Amino acid sequence: MVQLVGSFFFDNNDNITLFEEHIPSENTVIQYRTLPYLPGKRMAKTPLYILVGENAWSAAECLAYSLQKLKRATIVGEKTNYGAHSTRGPKMLNDYYVVKMPIGKMVSPITQSNWEGIGVEPDIKIGVDDALDTVVLEILSKKIEQNPDENAISELGCWCLKSERIDLAVFVFQENIKRHPDSAECFYNLGKAYLYSGEKQLAVELFEKSLAINPFNKSIEDIIKQTKISMD
Q1: What pLDDT shows up at residue 217?
Q2: Do residues 163 and 139 touch, judged by C-beta distance below 8 A?
């Protein structure tokens, strides 16, 4: 499964060793390389973040560790604390005992080691409850830096609003104002985000700044009046 999932994030002709399984008792090394064919679209150029925590173990750890060491993924969250040994079994010994024994270990071709006993260390250390928000904020920040166009940033903020992520929308619209301080639309969008969050006084102040930049926008005058009435 690690080989299958990991292959989606490389080109079909990359032929990269994701990880190896070393089995000392058999003097065997099995390489798990990226697959040349996949039943779906590859995402070789897509930025990849993997969220981990103490409940990520075994194959999940292998995927995170392997792609991290290949510099194909950014790991976010809390350190894992499980193992990197493959097992054989379970095998019935008799009516009372079943045995399942570790026989090998997973090894990164980059580090020639694994996460056994130390866990997978995240690149961005954050509590698991905040990991997803941290990733989204990281992605939004990079998108804004890559394309600081006012309309492009506004679209990101509106996407956050539609997704009911008001805190992220506020962040995006604030970044837009920093880059475009003379835009009436930027102040209006931030005011709208605060209005959605119930912070009406802040919303009115921003709507008024927008109106000061563009005094011909009568619809904002109506919004200000309606918002003030709702505050009484």
Answers
A1: 86
A2: no
DSSP 181-218: TT-HHHHHHHHHHHHHTT-HHHHHHHHHHHHHH-TT-H
pLDDT in tens, 105-120: 999 999 999 999 899 9
Concatenate the DSSP letters of all residues of the chain into one string: -HHHHHHTTS-TT---EEEEEEEGGGTEEEEEE--S--SS---TTS--EEEE-TT--THHHHHHHHHHHTTS-EEEES------EEEEEEEE-SSS-EEEEEEEEEE-TTTS---TTT-PPPSEE--HHHHHHHHHHHHHHHHHHH---HHHHHHHHHHHHHTT-HHHHHHHHHHHHHH-TT-HHHHHHHHHHHHHTT-HHHHHHHHHHHHHH-TT-HHHHHHHHHHHHHH-
Backbone dihedral angles phi then psi of residue 18, each to the nearest 5 degrees = -75, -50
- If we measure between CA atoms, which residue out of 174, 157, 175 comes closest to residue 166? 157
Residue 202, pLDDT > 80, answer yes
The amino acid sitting at 103 is: I
Q: Which domains does the chain have, with CATH numbers?
A: 2-125 (3.90.226.10), 147-231 (1.25.40.10)
The terminus-to-terminus CA distance of the chain in angstroms comes to 59
